[in-house]
Amino acid sequence: MDTQVILEKAVVSLNGIGAQTAVRLEKLEIRRIRDLIFHLPIRYEDRTHIQAINTLAPGSTALVCARVVSTEILDRTRRSLICQITDETGYLSLRFFHFSASQHNSLSAGTLLSCFGEIKQGYSAYEMIHPEYKVIQTVEHCITDDTLTAIYPLTEGLRQASIRKAIDQALSLYNNNPEALPDLLPDALLKHFHYPSLVAALNSLHKPEPGMSVNALLVSPNPALKRLAFEEFIAHQLSQLKNKSIDKHWQAPVLKSTQEQEQRLLNNLAFTLTAAQQRVIQEIQSDCASNSPMLRLIQGDVGSGKTVVAAYAALLALSSHYQVAIMAPTELLAEQHLRNFSHWFKDFSTQIVFLTGQLKGKKREQALQAIAEGSAGIIIGTHALFQDAVSFERLGLIIIDEQHRFGVNQRMALRDKGQHKNSKPHQLIMTATPIPRTLAMLNYADLDISIIDELPPGRIPVVTRAISAERRAEIIAKITNWVKQGRQVYWVCTLIEESEVLQCEAAEKTATLLAEMLPEVRIGLVHGRMKALEKDQLMQGFKQHELDLLVATTVIEVGVDVPNAGLMIIENPERLGLSQLHQLRGRVGRGTEDSFCILMYQTPLSRTSRERLNILRETSDGFIIAEKDLELRGPGEMMGTRQTGQIQFKIANLERDTALLDQVSEAVNIIQQTCPENIQPLIERWLGTTTKYAEV
Ligand code: ADP
Ligand code: MG
Question: Which of 93, 109, 144 is at the close of a domain?
Fold first, then answer.
């Protein structure tokens, strides 16, 4: 048989793998024999030697050989069988919650046992709960293994023994036919980074050599694991670069504006542009003036003025008689864009259309029609913009605000809408959540990045204080003073992201409480479950200073802009990520007067939480904050649920392997130069044949 395909066969071709096991394996994305080879252990167990009881440490697993001292049934909190054993160095308890009478009988005093299990701290001594054990005749019968035992991730119904058996077979097929899984990293590169070959790396992970530490997969920089993670990172970057070059085959409309038009927009701005804004606008102008699609990410800290940059981009489309779609993650933010754009473009004849999920009936019909006919030049909305019913007449530019709040698929759907023969719209995406350089390389290597690294002049940094919730009364007293001076306040209630209902309830309670304590203060409440209209009226009221204090959930995280509100109290800040807190804080400090952010934490505060809050006090630089967030929490959390559409790795782990990222670009260069023929196989090995996923 052709050895190239030996590992491409379905897992059912292995001994002992039936249809049912195959279905279970598929849940782990294991279909072909080769997938088994890349299914790495999560940890190891050490059955290579018998451990003396007096050397055991809680939390670890151990093989122990000892005699039964006594066995009894205890009925204390929960009926259990307790068997005390000793090996002359100490005593250990075995505890069973499920047991039979025969089991009880077999564990009579004097019986010799070999047991394997995790050591826990029991009432008086260490114990093992439901250990694997065997009655043996002599110590010599206690079977030890030659190497550490690999423990694999499982799925329901799949047993450790079955998957181990399957992997053993897969591995020996591979070892007999190493050319079936060629090493795609060139020798020179492996030497340069001191990495083992592919076959050596995979073998050493599945069958760790004697002497390897049980913690090898968790902590120590294991070269075999490093090599695989590195290869996976490389594959991801290669895939991004490939997408970028595919994009070059697409055309895009040439978009230009005249000086007169730019001046007309400028006349409606209440400020002059910062140098950073001007630079980024020029970058966009030069991208759009070419007939290949722009794909540009603007990173700019909260308040750096990204919206007006988007307006200049929109002007390019309008002036060239193309439509521009602006998508925001929340209704609140979309509405604010609508207000800004309506004002900035009031001297232009174009129609601005607003489209969100809330829009219904006749109004919705009219909006859809204006978009389809092309009478609407600027279309502002939420993710409702990419519903099937929406069809654009001539979409030339897509602007996505706060892009990290959208999933990859949502962004792609909008882009597909504007697709026309071999032409795609230009795309501008904006974010205030800075992406640390190393992560940007993996997720956004196919994007050009512009950074607005300057805040509009006259901003006074927000003074940030961390104060314990025990001093609530003091904080509330401060509000009274503040409001007396004619200034406004945000009070932000946070809860865990997932539960919007609870978050709203908490905000409602707080609003009622504050109203009781501060009868002279005009208090409003805004949360995610309110109707758009209601929310809008409330925000307008706050903006026009008909309200003094706004109790809010994290819905106000993006976009809300009320310069007179210079005091923000954030409840339970320890629950949020630093970048999110920084975003929230960005709602204050928008005027020219002093402003404060009070982080009202619950005691006791863990050391890490304290450290994290300190970072916010010390800096207002979003990039530094993001880097620290990465250090303290790791990208898993940082890029996790809040940043949907991020890469799922098979083996690499951004937390454990961050250090490798620095070398990825260098390695990619080496591959491009010495073995470009390996690029496609690398991408297929790690990302499969679906490449659309990585597109933005
Ligand atoms: P973000 O980058 O967070 O989206 P915005 O676009 O909302 O920032 O701008 C924040 C505030 O700064 C707005 O009130 C906006 O009008 C104002 N602004 C933007 N650019 C400038 C500038 N060059 N000078 C003064 N104020 C500006
Ligand atoms: Mg913004």
Answer: 144
